[in-house]
What we know:
The structure is a single chain. By secondary structure, this protein is α+β, with helices and mostly antiparallel strands. It folds into two domains: 1-36; 58-163, CATH 2.40.50.140. Helix content is 24%, strand content 32%. β2 and β3 form a beta hairpin. Mean pLDDT is 78; it is low at 36-48.
Amino acid sequence: MGTLSNSIESVHRARTRAIPILLLIVGMSAGMAMALPAPARAAEGYWWGSPVNPGFDRNTVIRATGTVLQVDIAARGGPGTLSLQTSTESITVILGPSWFLSEQHVDIQNGDPLVVEGAKMMDRRGNLHLVAASVTNRRTGAVLQLRDDEGRPLWTGGRPSWKR
């Protein structure tokens, strides 16, 4: 009977010593996992998850005139966009961060006649986008300036850009 009692006591001591070691191993593993870099979602586009490559190429700047088919200025976590129907095609226009557009009190509605100056850009699926530098709304007469002459976004510099 003494042997059984000694065996049970030995097992109990071994378990008691193993628990802190096990907790240490689990804790270190969790710490190492958290220290690993997260996937670089920004590499997917200027706005996370966007199929559009970042940048503004002054060599591809065009002026497009058309009518707004659809506008999404209040995009959550992404850029405000609109679909512009020109005489020859429908173009997705990327305006800028929704928070910036909200601060500018942008008034663009479906059916508005616009003149958009911006850089042409193809997404990874081959679709044409226009990264807007300025937008003139012919209904209201307002001009939304989004980028400076070098193509730098005004939301990084902070000056007001919605003029009447």
